[in-house]
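Weekly structure sync, notes
Attendees: PL (lead), two postdocs, one rotation student
Agenda item 3: pending single-chain targets
PL asked that the sequence for the first pending target be pasted directly into the notes so everyone works from the same version. It is reproduced below exactly as submitted, 544 residues in total.
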Amino acid sequence: MPALKKMLQACDLDMLERISSFWSVDTTNLDLAAAAETLYQAMQDEALASEILASLPEAVKVAWEDVQRNPQKITWAHFTRKYGEVREFGPARREREEPEQHPISIAETLWYRGLIGRAFLNLPPEPREFVFIPDELLPESGPGEKLLSTLAIQKVEAKSLKIIAAADGRIIDHLTDWLAAKRMGRNLPVDISKAWVESEPFIAHMAAFSGLINAKGELEPDALPQFFQKDRVSILAEWATAWLNSTTINDLRSIPGLVFEGDWHNDPLKPRLFIVEMLRGLTQGDWHSLTALTRAVKTLQPDFQRSSGDYDLWFIRKADSSEFLRGFDHWDEVDGALIRYLINGPLHWLGMTDLGRGKEKAETAFKLTPLFFTLFNTDKPISEITKETPIKVAADLSFNIPAGASRPLRYQLARFCEIRSMTAIETCYEITPASLKLAQQNGLKPGQLVQYLEKNLKTPLPRNLMLLADQWEKHARVEEVTNVTLLRTHSSEVLQHLVSHPPTAKFIIEQLSPTTALINPAGIKVIKQSLLEIGLLTEIHLEV
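Predicted structure, written out during the meeting:
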């Protein structure tokens, strides 16, 4: 921090005289240099400094202690927003207003007692203007510097959590499903992929980090073997490092439910680095309150993603509202939402935070995993995050593939199957005529799948799977089950009339017997009218 002498030397003589009045220093008839030196000597008197601090109103004392104990440093914009402005006065204006006698804010009270200063400091992430207390005024017995994370982030009892979502790295499995769909030239069903907690753009970024897709978003098949051979923790560690240093992933603009308008830009890297660096100060193995974390940042470093401290520059609104979330009053809805997103989103997806909640509908607690600390300490051994889980093959030729299953198996099955259902922890694939036709178009045969499964599955395959592979490769035919509209007449003459009558004949799909036929339901009205013309009523029984 800037030294006291340097701070005083930057003041004009009138300002020094006003500060001196509180420190019982007479600077009358002294020039600027002498006045600064005399005041400097007086302010180093510990007894006098203690007396000055003790005389402060309680609210002012709280503000001074806030600056004193905050190791992350407080920007001037945040300080004045919280404790009021310090008016910019020259000597003449000070003479008229006497701000030291009539301060309009807590900040101004501290300013005219010489207890705080303001300066541009070259502190990460970039040079900004900060409020500071000169080193000489910091009591040696005062609270030592602590990480922001240890100040106000309360711990949560594990037994109070009813639901725990472990960071099991299932994004690796979801990305494998996504890659297989891309290889086959199809998109994942939107309603099914919503079961995933990760967004598809985030998955695409991870694929790009691993070289699995190129700049055009096209699959790079040659990169798959290396991806399949890596252990899960190594993949998560690589992705986490890439995400942490990425300027292409914009976490703020990824928050669900927010809409971003206008031509403005935010720095995605600085707030991410700030939050992760802060989390490093938390203890391993303990549950922490997400609400307390957010509150601590709001209290001590609210401008963590806004270097200028300006809360009116960004045009952000909720998706269900036309009102823009501008001003510090909306901090929780924007800046607080970013903190919650980082903890519940990327950090959880990438295996670094377990999440928990009690009776609430949303996560209220988090715990840093060993992987989080491993990323910052390469001396620690990296161990596999989960054991490989088995795939279940059912008699109806469906395959239940849980998170943590073999990635090559998942990928190959996905190339021959369609997704029947999907949850956050399991994907169910099934063999269908459409999936086999698509596989055939891509040069794949069912027999190849059978051989691969026999080699890699520990359980016997259903006999009907092998029969299916044989039948399909010989005939590539399927039996058909479909909904149809059946016309049944009381005599063959009536049906023959409809078949021979051009307006109705075009709706006859197939004659099954002299009195029954399959018809196109679009022709029901025409057929009914034609029968009415020959004196026959039509009774219609259709399921709705």
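Discussion points:
- The two ends are 78 Å apart (CA to CA).
- The longest helix spans residues 331-344.
Action: rotation student to compare against the earlier draft before next sync.
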